[in-house]
Amino acid sequence: MKISDTAIQDARIIEIDRITDDRGFFARVWCQDEFARHGVKANWVQANVGYSVRAGTLRGMHYQRDPHAEAKLVRCTRGAVYDVALDLRPTSSSYLRWVGVTLDADSRSMLYIPEGCGHGTRHWPMTARSSTSRPHRTSATPLLALATTTRHSGFTGPSPSR
Description:
By secondary structure, the protein is mostly beta strands. 4% of the residues lie in helices and 42% in strands.
C-alpha cells in the first residue's frame, strides 16, 4: 500500500497494491501494523455502505461530535465519487482546511478521515445509469443524538471532468 499525507493533519490517501492475474486481482485494504506506521490508529467497530442510484447525488457534510467522534476509511467500489474531508478540530494545525479526492472503482484508492473532521460526497456521473457504492468503516458506533449533517444542493466544487 502507498499511504500519502494530505493538506489535513492526520488525513491520508491510501492506494492499494494489486496482485493481478487472468482472474482479476487481490489486494489488502487494511493492515493495522502498516497503517499504524503512518500514524493511522483506528479500531474499526462498524462497517457501512452508501449507495446512490443517481449520478450527481450530494451527501452533505456530516460528522460525529465528542464523545463519540469517529474516524472513517472510505472507498468506492462502483462508479466514482468526489469525497471531501473538512477539518473541524479547532486545535488542529489544519483547522477549516479541506481536501477532496476522486475515489473510483478502477483505482480502488481510499481516504482516511480522522476523528473530528466532517465528511461529504458528490457522486460523479460515469454513464447515463450511474449508480455508486461506497463502503466505509468507522471507529465508533454513531449516536444519532450527536450526529451533525448539512444538506446542500448548491455544490460549487470541481466538475466531473474525468
